[in-house]
Amino acid sequence: MNKRRSQKERSAETSAKLMSSTIDLLHDQGITRTTTSDIARHAGVSRGALTHHFASREAVIGASVAEMLSKTARDLHRFAEDFMARGGSSDEIVDYIWQMMDDRLFYVTMEFLPEARHNDDFRADLIPTVREFHAGLDAIWTALAARAGAEPNHTRTVMNATMCLVRGMISQTVLRPDDPVYYASLLQFWKGQVRQHFPIEPAEPASAGSAARIR
Amino acid sequence: MNKRRSQKERSAETSAKLMSSTIDLLHDQGITRTTTSDIARHAGVSRGALTHHFASREAVIGASVAEMLSKTARDLHRFAEDFMARGGSSDEIVDYIWQMMDDRLFYVTMEFLPEARHNDDFRADLIPTVREFHAGLDAIWTALAARAGAEPNHTRTVMNATMCLVRGMISQTVLRPDDPVYYASLLQFWKGQVRQHFPIEPAEPASAGSAARIR
DNA sequence: CGATAAAAACAGCCTTGCTTGTTTGCAAGA
DNA sequence: TCTTGCAAACAAGCAAGGCTGTTTTTATCG
User: How far apart are the C-alpha atoms of B111 and B21, rounded to whole Å?
Assistant: First the structure.
């Protein structure tokens, strides 16, 4: 509508479109099949615009991934605050994490992880953002630990195990597709395990219908 | 030594060298950086030899991965037999699985998983071999269940959780490197959890020094 | 305020290097 | 000799990065 936009606005908007497109394509067609032309086309700009904003293909991908992780970290902090305020259950946390990871986050991660493993610069640029992401996770589990009066160190172990389990589950969906029951039951099992470590409110079994929504 | 080899021998040997080189390169430099020239050079043959044995790049990689999984499945069955014969502990199984996955298996898997996700033919060719691999796993845990008198279904759940956990742990090593203590303690935690489900021999705590060898 | 210069955002082409699959040539074993 | 295993040159496509030209916004000056 507003025809005249400042340069900063134009620039930020184009960058954002490019980064969001990059994540879309990483998820939909994989990192190897995603060319800079694809990214520009999907964002509705020229390849020239892309090279104007990002020095190289590696740079677009790196920036896009960092952006995605930052955004997710912010979401985590918001959830932690909310969780702390109303006092949720550990089951809820497991569900939230599964949904977050299954909602593209870890599928996109699986795309760039090999690149990170073999490209030292790429990996080094990423690590700070990953730490930021983990701080978001910490916030959630710290909230739970405070509520259940659990030891922080042990809480962190359970948190890390949960993250690893979910990562592994999503990896498996690639070569074991179309089996929602399998993943739901694994998640159910895991919630039981976690509950052991945070023995809070028995919670009326009537409303136990918060089963995991899978895929 | 033996100068004269039959054609079959020559052929099989060259194929084996090519497949083994492919796995080496997938692990060392990643799937995207691995060209057919690289594979041939590493195997000490010409690119012509490679194309003689495999129709395409995709074919070499697919065959190499299938070969790797088959071999690992055979190892699993051997371990299961041995385990059954002498009656080992659940800790031992967790250690064995970690070592197996950390010894290149899952690093290589991380390389081809994205390809499998986006290439239907590649994935379809792989799935039978993956099932074969899982049969090997089943053999081990069935042995344990029989020994501990546990319910097979529940055993399978613990097994699947273990596999997912280890997959996730190895994924994490990429962006959280050089922290063996972290991975060792997670594994330690998990062994405790698994032990709960298979309450067998308390085992003299004197020889509890079978801690995980990490990386 | 209006014109104009400068800078930034953007478009599109072009070249180069790399990789893959194909084809041709040759030697070793059946 | 005839097939099979391998070597090496060949052909073609593609994608990334670099380069040049155009439009839009911002700054400067009369």
Answer: 15
